[in-house]
Design goal:
Structural class: alpha/beta
CATH architecture: 3-Layer(aba) Sandwich
Shape: globular
Catalytic activity: 7-carboxy-7-carbaguanine + NH4(+) + 2 ATP = 7-cyano-7-carbaguanine + 2 AMP + 2 diphosphate + 2 H(+)
Number of helices: 7
Strand content: 15-25%
GO molecular function, one term: ligase activity
Strand order of the largest sheet: 3-2-1-4-5
Largest sheet: 5 strands, parallel
Order of helices and strands: EHEHEHHEHEHEEH
Protein name: 7-cyano-7-deazaguanine synthase
Distance between the termini: 29 Å
Cofactor: Zn(2+)
CATH superfamily: HUPs
CATH class: Alpha Beta
Number of strands: 7
Number of domains: 1
InterPro entries: QueC (IPR018317), Rossmann-like_a/b/a_fold (IPR014729)
């Protein structure tokens, strides 16, 4: 259902959350573009999934998906010493944050997305950040993104809107939202073509998707899938 005659720009990584958000935007906005970031990730599997996901989502919402913008951001990888940008153990640091936290990542992503949107005359920015069952990343918090929306709007002298449709949804609810938006076809698309595994494992297809099965991202995705299937009594996707 289109709720706006305007366009939206979705931060699209190729993961479950961003794929669901892209579907959410396609369902609501007249035109949707995507932006991705190559910042020296430990693996490129998630980025490699983007093209196929975009193609299949375009078929579900024909004629609404516009340009894709891939931005190189190597400086973020250069200044980060994390388990997502280095061959480091995934664990919790002395500050209580997981070693997968990339400081400033979402702050930079939204600032750059806003700059792209300014050039494209797009004021609606969509991201898959979530504060419900996340890893404690401070730049995923609702307060952070509300403050960022105000700051970017002031800096551009233009009202922008940051949408986070998953902010108060756990992973089970995220799977349910995908079904609500695009039925079994979208759920299966996200299950098999999106990627969330921190280790970049793409060799084994589990009932919840590809992944190593034991990193925090895989465990979260798998638990959400199990809860989703249990709550909706689904067994048709495996």
């Amino acid at each position: 259902m289109t709720l706006s005659s305007e366009s939206a720009l979705v931060l699209f990584s190729g993961g479950q959350d961003s794929a669901t958000c892209l579907a959410w935007a396609l369902d609501r906005f007249a035109r949707v573009e995507t932006v991705g970031f190559d910042y020296g990730q430990r693996h490129r599997v998630e980025l490699d999934c983007r093209a196929a996901l975009r193609d299949d989502l375009d078929k579900l919402w024909p004629g609404k998906l516009g340009d894709d913008h891939m931005l190189g951001l190597p400086v973020l990888g250069q200044i980060s010493d994390t388990a997502l940008t280095r061959e480091a153990e995934i664990a919790f640091g002395a500050d209580g944050l997981p070693t997968t936290f990339v400081p400033g990542r979402n702050l930079l992503f939204f600032n750059l997305a806003a700059a792209v949107g300014y050039r494209r005359d797009i004021r609606h920015l969509v991201g898959g950040m979530c504060e419900t069952d996340y890893s404690g990343y401070p730049d995923c918090r609702d307060d952070t993104l509300k403050a960022l929306q105000v700051a970017i709007g002031l800096g551009l002298d233009r009202r922008i809107v940051i949408h986070t449709p998953l902010m108060w949804r756990d992973k089970a609810a995220t799977w349910a939202l995908a079904e609500e938006l695009g039925g079994a076809a979208l759920v299966e698309l996200i299950r098999t073509e999106s990627h969330s595994c921190y280790l970049g494992e793409r060799g084994t297809l589990h009932d919840w998707g590809y992944g190593c099965g034991h990193c925090p991202a895989c465990e979260l995705r798998a638990r959400g899938w199990t809860e989703y299937r249990s709550a909706t009594n689904r067994d048709k996707f495996v």
